[in-house]
């Protein structure tokens, strides 16, 4: 875990020329570096840079990954795959479904990663590291460094999520709320900017492939009844991601558009 944080720092703090080789605003490019994916939709820019990596094509050619953190990126992904299976069983059981249900429907079969870097900010009261949002995935496994900055929304309050060494933060994503018909709630969260130094985090988003998965994901039939009708329309993963990107980081607005 600590080596993954160090690898993230190595990438972001290398020369601009080295990072420029990965710069792209093409969301479907498997490995890309940029700031503010929603730059042209958002009302304000966020104070962060991000290296993103989609492992939709498996196996990925390792040469596509940055050399300065390639080895740890591949090793870290292996551990995330193992943890995904465990979380899938736990969540299936919590819903009263067979333990292998969520794995069987492939809703968390692919991982995409966001390696975030929040630079020191001279005026943190005038911006955010990341605007309030929920995640366009089924589940997110977040690794924080020891500086923190993450907050989650609870009713009308923003609550600090202090980092604990050796642990992950697991967030429910929009699509898990959708297929559970609201039994699980996606988490609205944000990241504060800081004037006292840089902050790093690594988010692993669990979802189906954007490239090959054409399944329509809607409320799970076993969770519906006469008194519990569907609350959401079905949607393909690619369609939801495109809709989310068009809106940008905007709370839970993207999910609301799929309510019945």
How would you describe the overall organization of this protein?
By secondary structure, this protein is α+β, with helices and mostly antiparallel strands. The protein has helices spanning 2-12, 16-20, 70-94, 101-104, 174-179, 237-247, 253-256; strands at residues 31-34, 49-54, 110-118, 130-133, 139-144, 150-154, 157-160, 169-172, 189-191, 199-207, 216-217, 235-236. Strand 6 (150-154) and strand 7 (157-160) form a beta hairpin. The radius of gyration is 18 Å and the shape is globular. The model has no long low-confidence stretch (mean pLDDT 94). Pfam families: 2OG-FeII_Oxy. GO terms for molecular function: dioxygenase activity; metal ion binding. InterPro entries: IPNS-like_FE2OG_OXY (IPR044861), IPNS-like_sf (IPR027443), Oxoglu/Fe-dep_dioxygenase_dom (IPR005123). This is Fe2OG dioxygenase domain-containing protein.
Strand order of the largest sheet: 1-2-3-10-5-8
Taking pLDDT < 50 over at least 5 consecutive residues as the criterion, the unreliable ranges are: none
Percent of residues in beta strands?
15-25%
Helix amount, in percent? Answer: 25-40%
Radius of gyration, in angstroms, nearest whole number:
18 Å
Class computed from helices, strands and strand pairing: alpha+beta
Report the biggest beta sheet as strand number plus sense, adding barrel if it closes. Answer: 6 strands, antiparallel
User: How many strand segments?
Assistant: 12
Counted by DSSP, the helix tally is: 7
Rounded mean pLDDT is 94
> What gross morphology would you assign?
globular
Order of helices and strands: HHEEHHEEEEEEHEEEEHH
How far is it from the N-terminal to the C-terminal residue, by CA? 41 Å
């Amino acid at each position: 875990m600590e080596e993954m944080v160090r690898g993230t720092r190595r990438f972001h703090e290398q020369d601009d020329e080295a990072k420029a080789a990965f710069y792209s605003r093409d969301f479907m490019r498997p490995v890309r570096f940029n700031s503010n994916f929603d730059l042209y939709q958002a009302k304000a820019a966020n104070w962060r840079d991000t290296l993103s990596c989609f492992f939709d094509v498996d196996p990925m050619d390792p040469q596509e990954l940055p050399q300065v953190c390639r080895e740890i990126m591949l090793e870290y992904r292996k551990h995330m795959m193992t943890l995904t299976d465990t979380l899938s069983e736990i969540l299936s059981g919590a819903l009263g479904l067979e333990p292998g249900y969520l794995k069987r429907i492939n809703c968390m079969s692919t991982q995409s990663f966001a390696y975030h870097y929040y630079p020191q900010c001279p005026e943190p009261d005038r911006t955010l590291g990341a605007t309030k949002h929920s995640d366009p995935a089924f589940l997110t496994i977040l690794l924080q460094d020891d500086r923190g900055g993450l907050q989650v929304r609870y009713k009308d309050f923003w609550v600090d999520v202090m980092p604990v060494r050796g642990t992950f933060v697991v967030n429910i994503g929009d699509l898990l709320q959708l297929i559970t018909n609201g039994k699980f709630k996606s988490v609205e969260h944000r990241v504060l900017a800081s004037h006292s130094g840089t902050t790093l985090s690594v988010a692993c988003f669990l979802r189906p492939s954007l490239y090959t998965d054409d399944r329509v994901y809607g409320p799970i039939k076993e969770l519906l009844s006469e008194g519990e009708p569907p609350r959401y329309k079905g949607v393909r993963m690619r369609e939801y991601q495109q809709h989310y990107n068009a809106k940008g980081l905007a709370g839970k607005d993207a999910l609301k558009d799929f309510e019945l």
